[in-house]
């Protein structure tokens, strides 16, 4: 089968990375294929005609979604009309299930073949969504083999395509080489802060991430902290966030990193002043220590007599 037109909608930077690899693979098999939809720098570089900026769909949290709901509805209506007029051979939604599955359902009802790349975690929770997925896609493309088995058990066409990072990352990692590339000491503990690629993740959670790192540095002298910057824009936002903290020279930017993305390195000595503030944290998912820790280590300043737990003023 010759594929001439592919409509792809990615919702954030991770989707752009996946879409870039997907487009390259499709072009290798179908050199004359055309692409249209929503993509970021990588997909545009591969020939995507992006109808809206990638950031249009990069919203997080209930409040942000409600705030941007009219715009999101307008964008989806525009994409539906655009795809119907362009008549692609297939429409592929990359992740962003709350946006893409609805669009896929509308296009499938209009006779366009649809696929969804990156399975929602329907196998883990809200399994009732499987009925909506069945109405939306002609095929689900999964990262993990057990996901494929799950969809097959529900009689939804599925293909296990694997995770693209498996082709980029070595099976074994040279820790010493990685630390040397990032300018980190080889024998000292390292904390990686992973705020994500969305602007609002830096805007709303950036200070919380840094507060957590500062607290850990005070309890773990010598701890080294690194922060990956997903895009040049996120890089500048992180730089501004760090520079706004009195006494912090904002570390320095390491030019080499995993997959070529820049990282910020923060030295523990640069943090000597921490704002006095209260941080409210959920007792089941504390906001400032790793997911899965239902209580902090002994000695951390948390008052569990409070209903939701809270940090003492630092």
Highlighted features:
314 residues, globular, 7-stranded parallel beta sheet, single chain, 4-stranded mixed beta sheet, alpha/beta, 9 helices, 13 strands, Rossmann fold, 2 domains
Brief synopsis:
The chain has 314 residues and is of the alpha/beta class. 38% of the residues lie in helices and 16% in strands. Helix 3 runs parallel beside helix 4 (97-109), helix 4 crosses helix 5 and helix 8 packs across helix 9 (232-243).
Protein topology:
Elements: E1 5-10, H1 13-29, E2 34-38, H2 41-45, E3 48-52, H3 61-86, E4 90-94, H4 97-109, E5 114-117, H5 129-136, E6 139-142, H6 145-153, E7 158-160, H7 175-182, E8 190-192, H8 199-219, E9 224-228, H9 232-243, E10 252-254, E11 263-266, E12 302-303, E13 310-311
Parallel strand pairs: 1-2, 1-4, 2-3, 4-5, 5-6, 6-7, 8-9
Antiparallel strand pairs: 9-11, 10-11, 12-13
Helix pairs in contact: 3-4, 4-5, 8-9
Low-confidence stretches: 248-314
Instruction: Please report the total strand number as a whole number.
Output: 13
Beta content comes to 15-25%
Shape descriptor reads globular
Q: What's the overall average pLDDT, rounded? A: 76
Question: In sequence order, what are the helices and strands, one letter per element?
Answer: EHEHEHEHEHEHEHEHEHEEEE
Question: Strands across the major sheet, in which order?
Answer: 3-2-1-4-5-6-7
Q: How many domains would you count in the coordinates?
A: 2
Question: Can you identify the CATH class of the largest domain?
Answer: Alpha Beta
Percent of residues in helical segments? 25-40%
Just name the CATH architecture of the largest domain. Answer: 3-Layer(aba) Sandwich
SS-based structural class? alpha/beta
* Biggest sheet descriptor: 7 strands, parallel
User: What is the CATH superfamily of the largest domain?
Assistant: Glycogen Phosphorylase B
Report Rg. 22 Å
The number of helical elements comes to: 9
Distance between the termini: 64 Å
CATH topology group of the largest domain: Rossmann fold
